[in-house]
Amino acid sequence: MVRFVFERYYRELLNFLALKVRDRDTAADLTQESFARVYAAERAGTAIRDPRALLYRTARNLLTDGYRRASTRQAAAPDAGDSLIEPDDHAGPEALEPDRAFATRQRFEAIATIVDGLPPRCREAFVLVKFDGLSHAEVAQRMGIAVKTVEMQVQIALAACWERLGELDGGDAAPRSRRPKNHPPEN
Would you call 180 exposed, middle or buried from its count of C-beta atoms within 10 A (0-12, 13-18, 19+)? Predict the structure, then answer.
């Protein structure tokens, strides 16, 4: 399902941003950053009811931030050619660096693969809770199962995601406070 969101909205958002900034590379960076921020919000536990709307709001906020930074730089140094500041001092956020964007995309794709590979009922419960923003009780009612079963399915999915992130990071990706209760500590 996560991959579905990425595949469905990536080109649409990229084209939208390309029209706004008139530079395809910058638009691609902004698109990637938008997906990364939405993914990070979801990972932090934010309920995402409409991923498309959140992606567009995030992209617009990134555009606004970029315009503000550009106008501040212009006001501070109207004669940029005479400036003693090195160009590297104006580098963008680290998250927009190509290697960082690539690593973020790899992490996103790894999680999408994990979610897509979950057993159908586990995946359904996880997506309904984490992406559609339904409560455990609402998911239980919709799926015709107990609330405890929904909780268990979501914990299984989260544990699989944390485990994969740990493999990517070469260590323990889940903070102890975020690790599900039934997930044993790694040695």
Answer: middle
